[in-house]
Amino acid sequence: MASDLIAQLGPLRLPADFAVFGWRDYLAALSIGLLVACLVAALLRPLFASRRDDVARLALELDSFKTLNAGERLYRQAAVLRSLGGDVADVGGEFAVALYGSAPVTDLDALDEKILGHARRRR
Question: Which of 57, 98, 56 is nearest to 75 (CA)?
Answer without folding.
Answer: 98
